[in-house]
Amino acid sequence: MIKKLTVITGVLLLVCALIAPGCNPEVELVAPADFYKGRSIELVSMTSPGNLNDLILRIMASYISEDTGASVSVTTRKGAGGIEGANYIYKAKPDGLTLGMTSMVKYVGNKILGEPAAEYELEEISYIMCTHPRQTYFFVSPDGPYQTVAELQAATDLKLAATSASGYCSLAGLTVIELLGLDAQVVTGFKGTSDIALAIQRGEVTGYAVSTQQALIDAGIIKPLFVIATERDPLKPDVPAITELVDLSDEDLELVNLWETVLNNAGLFITSPGVPEDRLAYLRDLVDQWYQDEGFRAQVDAVAGEELTMYLTGEEVTMRILNTASIIGQFQTIFTELAAKYRH
Amino acid sequence: MLEAYGTALCTLFQPINLLVMLAAVIIGLIVGIIPGIGGGTMVVLLLPFVFRMPTEAVLILLVALHAVVYTSGGITAILLNMPGESSSMVTMLDGFPMTKRGEGGRAIGAAVTSSMAGGIVPVFLALAMVPVMIPIIMAFGQPEMVVLVLLGISCIAALTGSSVIKGLISGAAGILLSLFGYHFVTGVHRFSYGSAFLYDGIGLIPLLLGLFAIAEIFHLIVRGKESITQRALVKLSGVAEGVKDVWRHRWLWLRSSIIGYIIGIIPGIGASVSNWVCYGQAKQTSKHPEKFGKGSVEGVIAPEAADNAKEAGALLTTMALGIPGSAIMALLLAAFLMVGVTPGPTMMMEHLPLALTLLMGIALANIVGGVICLFASPQLVRVSSVHLDFLFPIIVIAVLIGVYVATLSPLNFVVVLVFSILGLVMQRYGYSRPALVLGFILGGLLENYSLLSIKLYGPLFLFRPIPLTLLVIMILLLLYPRLKRGISNLRGRPRREF
After folding, report:
1. Which residue range is the domain that position A207 belongs to?
2. Res A22 pLDDT > 70
3. In chain A, which residues have their Cβ closer than 8 Å to the Cβ of B196?
């Protein structure tokens, strides 16, 4: 009997020994602060090098390395408008060692437009935080013929510029036309917002909608006419909200709300789905600490060319994205209809 | 004004700045030689460190590093038919044939001198250009861009080789390949099959390296060659011959520098078009156009002069308007902002000494980089006489590393393989690979600018004053050799007696 029990115990111990590595005790038992020490973290930049989100990620790289004790490498996977990087993170191991920064409007916009290559699921990705959620403005030339919304509404055959047909400017342009009831179309295909700003100066297009472009405003190339929001942006209190200028229906207000909450040019800091809660909380706490640090904020403000103190915590941004994901079909319909009407 | 130049010179020659620049030049030269890793990659890697360095030093570091990448980038193109970037490809068209006939040193001498001098002249033009650059930029809208791209594409005429039909087929194939991926103007996915890999189309770097570097070595091996050339010149005098060539063709060099500089000032188009346009005009105005593509030194001088000049032009636009003309200029713009300098119209007034320091920094970096390259050339040229058994694996590894670092996608190895085979077949049957690349690079641009122009100006967009003038110039350039022959025939013909 004793012999049998010894054999059974031995077999059980053997089975446990075999199963144990699969359970990965580190995941369950090691404190997050200790987990990262000596490990390698990959930071994936999903926007072009030099883009604000890319630069903020590179500033974060040295802070992550210093605070976690991990070695950090930054890779650029900006292909397919950031889809390549988002897919990469979506498929990465759920260990919290693959983090990335993407543009919120592109990340959400790709799903709203039903991009076939976008394999990631909004509900499954783990969100660490959202940097500088900046509102979307409508810009015109300071010397151009349209200086008020009334002048825009009275005009015919206006042209609003955009980069990619499925990009930020395009979606924002469609929204502006719909909300103001303009006789206009969105002209897509410009190489970048700088090209659009020049086209505005040349009088080739009327205006465009995008997040604030402080350098171009300072250079006197463009000026903001209004912000697509229900309230004025505290950073630019002189610029009116669109709701102050036109009466909007409930449906229109819902669209404005979408722009206020998720379709803004913020930097979305994410990691793979299924990362242990304590590790995610640890990463979120780290980011909170950086944003309390004046040195970090000074560096972020320097690359932005303006003060970017606002950010959304991981919990806040998760809630916003999950809310959007739950009604994404509704927005898919709206933007498909708008594109068919106003994009040529 | 002179005071600003003096201040800039003093700043540049401070020991710390000189040291930083020397380091940048060495890094830039090494980076330029490795295919796929452009100056942009290095600038990105260095950006996080800019906060810890003095303003002038960090900007000199970035600008100098970027400037010399083009100087050394042409060397691998000339010696190994391995273009790191599309701009080096134009140099390769005549540089590599020169290497094959044992004139690699001369080609490098001409390329480096032309590139170096092309980077110096714009510094002296910079302040004179500031008042006229805004009108130039404002004059070049979408229709004008169409004609500029057309001007570049017209170079297919210079690249057709022995068969015009085969050249046109190659160019058309290149344009077709450029249409893969998501189309930004219409929002339509073309041949991407829902894949994120093909969303942005076929990558230029894997295409170039497959089509030229690997295919060339394959071709040499198939033909039973033991090395690229049996007569690798290892004397400095051979390099000096190339330096003298630039002096002999000084007007071509000056013309190319100015064209490159002006195209560089126009945001968004410089890198793709300027070298081709300069190559095209060099052939059309040459006394020996038939030698182009077979190892003409003029075909090396023209694109190299344009290469560095256009970068100086692009930097001027970035500083004076705050509008970056290319991805690398966007990075430099970010670096300016990071150190607290806001580029824009006020920069040329408020930070004139800094702007001049940077422009002079480019010039000095070009001189230092150029001299290093010239003295290293005799040794570098020896590479072309290395036995292919040794050279082949090294090139394959360099290509694969370059492609992976540039794209981070192993799928691009397949692209390299496909284009290596295509390159071999094209070479075997006499189809023009440069024409394919030209179509590939400029085809997408032509489509986008044309569609945009139609949307903004209607179908008659070419009948505006500037596009029409440019079109006439383009046609005259294309017809120039025939016109010249016709005029000299008329002059030579005896008068009829009545």
Report:
1. 136-262
2. no
3. 79-80, 83-84, 87, 117-119
